[in-house]
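Annotated sample (chain length 771).
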Amino acid sequence: MVLLTKGAPTANTTPATSSNMLSLPFRRSHTVSLADAIKRYISTKYDQHPDMFTADLSTIDQLRNDAIHATEPHSTGIKKIQAYAAQLVWLSGKFPIDVGVDFPWYPAMAYDVSRPLAQNNLRYELANVVWNLAAMYSQLAFSANRSTQDGLKTAANYFCLAAGSLSFLRTDVVPDMRSTPPDDMDIMTLESMEQLMLAQAQECFWQKAVKDGMKDALIAKLAARVSDLYVEAGDFGVQTDAVATEWIHHMTAKHHHFAAAAQYRAALDCLEKRKYGEEVARLRDSLSCATEAIKEAKYINKTVLGDLQGLKNRVQEDLKRAEKDNDMIYLIPEPPKSELKTLDRANMVNSKVPPQIKDPMEHLGDKSELGKPLFTRLVPYAVHVAASIYEDRRDRLVNVSIIDELEALNTKMHDMLRSLNLPGSLQALEKPLGLPPGLVSHAEEIRQQDGPNRLTKAIYDTDKLKDSDRKIYQEGVELLKSEAAEDERARAKYGTDRWSRPPPAEAAPKLYAQITSIDQYLNQAASSDEQVAKKLRDNDVLIRLLAGSDRDLELYVPSSRRATLTPAVEQAASKLRACLNDVNRLESRRRKKVEALRTKCRTDDINPDLLRETARLEREFPMQKIEAAQFETFFERRLEETYDPDKEALQAEAAEQDALLKRLQDANGVFAAARKGDTTTREREMALQRLENAYFKYKEIISNLEAGRKFYNDLARMVTRFRDEARGFVYQRRSEASQIEAYVYSSFLLVSFSYPFFLFRSYIPNNVITT
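Output written by the structure step:
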């Protein structure tokens, strides 16, 4: 029997009036090309060409087409759905969850099933496919011939597999979706349907025991467990809008029906054991339960109603006979209901997760039942993530620990030159007229780079990245604040006894710690940006002058009369020039070293070694999914072997510079002493030195802006990860809160008897159902 909300699709089963059981309806979908999305993704994100996977691309679309059209209860449909589900699990290790295709699926049990919900989400696709696997099992059970022993065993097995599929969907697939599931895939709906499938499986065992003529005591235990499972299904069902009212009434009727059946069989067992007073008491309780079940008459189908009426008639007849016999013959007191022993339960069912979806990799292979895994020649997505992590770590090591240290040495050297008024004082003496060649070279460099505009654009780009990072960070923070406020309101509403879960900051301390750390990063970066902006403001006029014409520079730099060089001055100037040339050579060598390091980084291709390491991990841990974290030790070893020599060379570099700067200071001291009292070139010296200083400030600002751009690019990955983790955490917490509220609310209803379903439970004999 399939009873759904108005407008909901019905499953392909026999008419609803011909069965006393329910089956899950299939979810429908349109044809979309997963192959096209995978092809685009391979083209943009992988080094391999998609044409290498033409056969696999064709196969994945065919598998999807077969799976979404497997909507008839036939055993061949199971393999079609399982094969596609297994490939989806396999593909999740090679592609991100948002691979680039919107999967449209129509709800199966919600109020509005006429409009599809589409998500660019592989796990959403898997969730719908697993639902259809559960629906396939339930409809195969529904269509089984339950009039035979083998048919009952088959139906019970299929119902258990349907329950297992729903359990897997609820515990493994939906929590990993990273998005809000459809209304009919919320926790309460899935729990309700799982318990319903188990109830119907247990009912098959009960029916088989009746057919086999088993002892009444055992049949009573089986029936009591059927009643338990139906009431659990109903309890979960009333907490969601997706389960139709007709289904709730069906579960309620079946719950009371099997409570009545359990007491009736217990009464027969009492008759056999000559417990005539207890027989009458149990028959009376059985009649009470049957009467409660028949109150659902206008909501249930004729088959269920007929079963109920038949049981009630039989109980009434036996009760009349038992009362008459006990009153006239046995005269044994009838015990009150409260003294009746609670019936034991005989549970015969459990949720059986099909191994094909629980461990799909065990069933994929060249000769395996679900076919070979697709895209095996494509490097796993986790390996690409690992390669990106290595590249980020390598770049950070080289830039921060080596290149930045070399730049710091250069800055120290320029600060020394600036403090000594070099090379301006020497240039003014050597060339009292016109522009020194070094200054002309520096000016030409800034002109070729369109220096002022380059600085303006770099600042604009950096500010744009900074604003984007701040916005993403704030989005994550607001999500956490919103969830924390919701949690606090719920704690105030229900009290700490009922709302006993830990506050969000305690539940995810690492995530909340990121709020402070990222904020500190942003504040520190803002402070650094302000320092860079101040440097630019202080040197903007001179940088623009250097970017102008030589005529402008000549007007800015005053000429001086040619000074008379004494032998002492000439000798001191020669030694000083030699030291400055050594400084220039050292700086030039460092630039080449930095370029060589950057080239080394660019050519440092970790992929071949990473693939070999992946192959080793797959051999040693065949059941373990490859994760980027597994390569940590490998990364550390490789970085040490490749870049430790460059880090160690920094000490020699610093020692060489210290010795050179000492010689430079000494030479400049001799030069200054030789020219003591000579002020003929003073103004020219100062002008040249200011321009020289502005040039080095320009280089420094460019370097600062490049570092800032890289910092904000790196931070973008961090804040995006923070926001995504916040989204996942908030979704998990809200789902958890929904469950807690539902349990708290159902407990309240149970106490107050304010909802009809629980009111029905108030009539249940204590010895049949215990809460």
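Annotation: DSSP finds 23 helices and two strands in the chain.
Annotation: The beta strands are 103-105, 117-119.
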